[in-house]
Amino acid sequence: MSRARADEEEYWHSSKFRAFTFDDEDDELSQLKESKRAVNSLRDIVDDDDDDLERVSWSGEPVGRRNKLPSFQSLSDALSDTGVKSYAPELRRPKADYKDYSSDWSPKDTVRRMQRGKVCSLERFRSLQDKLVLLDEAVAGHDGNVITAVLIFLKRTLRREVLFRELEVRQVALCHLIHFLKETGEQKLLLDLLRFLDRTEEVALSQYREHLNIQDVEKRREFLKGCIGLPFSAEDTSHIQDHYTLLERQIIIEANDRHLESAGQSEIFRKYPRKASILNMPLVTTLFYSCFYHYTEAEGTFSSPTNLKKTFKIPDKQYVLTALAARAKLRAWDDVDALFTTKNWLGYTKKKAPIGFHRVVEILQRNNAPVQVLQEYVRLVEDVETRLNLATKYKCHDVVIETYRDLKDRIQLTAYKCKVERGSADEEKINSILNNMQIRWKN
């Protein structure tokens, strides 16, 4: 029995398949270090399932957080099948740290040691049954780092079809592996796993995400065109189609505007040079760009804001909000006025804002609109308290005075008189109202 154990030790220390060694270290426990490093490095990884993209504004500045995924690249490199690399923060440990090491630990003891960050080797688990028991113990321990470390070991030592078959009945471990493969970018293995599980929509989505790695815009467009036929749900297929159409539209707009800008043929491009390319920007950013540079174009042109609204079914609120921001930035107050002016069947006009006039006022103020423009929209705020707060905040004295007059609140009007400049037209207006004997004051 002891001879058999000695032969086994000699094999693992002399074979070309020796698992964990350092080139500059040759002690009998060096093969144990990789498993230790795997567990230690995993402690530093924070799980996060969000895989949104960071959105970028047309100006090139971040406007929202999109990509919060942790990087597993060092872990992937360290555990690749082509070689063994060190990624632990410490490369050497004193031999005293291995004094309680034993090669006879059960799967349960091994998992416990991994949870405590202790040195242990997984290479002794050679049979499929032993490896599955080890995985089950890791899952039972509810430690994601340990589960992932064991899965990496199984991924390296089991055939794919065997690994996939066993994980199919172990959903917790399966979810960990899928997440790990997404993080490390092991696309081929991930697609093989999803196909084995017959998750066609996830396969399609994973393939669609590949467009993020394509830098050439023409190649990206062709790739997206090919994604339209993938087995997505009806709703997702519509989104993919819109993505392709948007990029195709952006390519046309970008080529035309680059020519106009370089030729100096357009006054708006001379006065407001573009800060960034429109390519690969979100739909709302593209709409803002269009409202900024192409607001007056006919609907039949690709760069027309109304064409974009119709093509991509942009809601009225989103369109008005974006158009308002673009035209206010240009201080095009007539365009702002026309944006909210509607006409009924009798020919009468009135102001209407699907986003609420209080939001209109806030956007105009952020773009340094003059008081005369601001107070015109403050007057249109229906809620009296909100109107007074906005008028007071932005010093729209006429609106405050008229509101207190309509409320017949003599006390508040008298108090507000102290807030206007002495001898100004506003003070004269207040005095005139206070002296008006025809007003029946409430107080």
What amount of the residues lies in strands?
A: under 5%
The mean pLDDT is 80
> In this structure, how is the largest beta sheet organized?
2 strands, antiparallel
What order do the strands of the largest sheet run in, or round the barrel if closed? Answer: 1-2
Q: What is the total tally of β strands?
A: 4
Number of helices: 23
Which class do the helix and strand fractions yield?
A: mainly alpha
N-end to C-end Cα span: 106 Å
Radius of gyration, in Å, reads 34 Å
Task: Specify the overall morphology.
Answer: elongated
> Which regions contain 5 or more consecutive residues with pLDDT less than 50?
11-36, 41-92
Order of helices and strands: HHEEHHHHHHHHHHHHHHHEEHHHHHH
The share of residues in helices is 55-70%
How would you explain this protein's 3D organization?
The chain is mainly α and about 450 residues long. Helix content is about 55%, strand content about 0%. The protein is built from 23 helices and 4 strands. The strands form 2 sheets. Strands 1-2 form a two-stranded antiparallel sheet. A two-stranded antiparallel ribbon has the order 3-4.
Summary tags:
single chain, two-stranded antiparallel ribbon, 23 helices, elongated
How would you briefly describe this protein structure?
The chain is built from 23 helices and four strands. It has 443 residues and is mostly helical.
Topology:
Elements: H1 2-14, H2 33-42, E1 55-56, E2 62-64, H3 73-78, H4 107-115, H5 128-140, H6 144-157, H7 160-168, H8 171-184, H9 187-196, H10 200-208, H11 217-227, H12 234-263, H13 267-271, H14 283-293, H15 305-311, H16 316-329, H17 333-340, E3 341-343, E4 349-351, H18 357-366, H19 371-378, H20 384-393, H21 397-407, H22 410-416, H23 425-434
Helix pairs in contact: 2-6, 4-5, 5-6, 6-8, 8-9, 9-10, 11-12, 14-16, 16-17, 18-19, 20-21, 21-22, 21-23
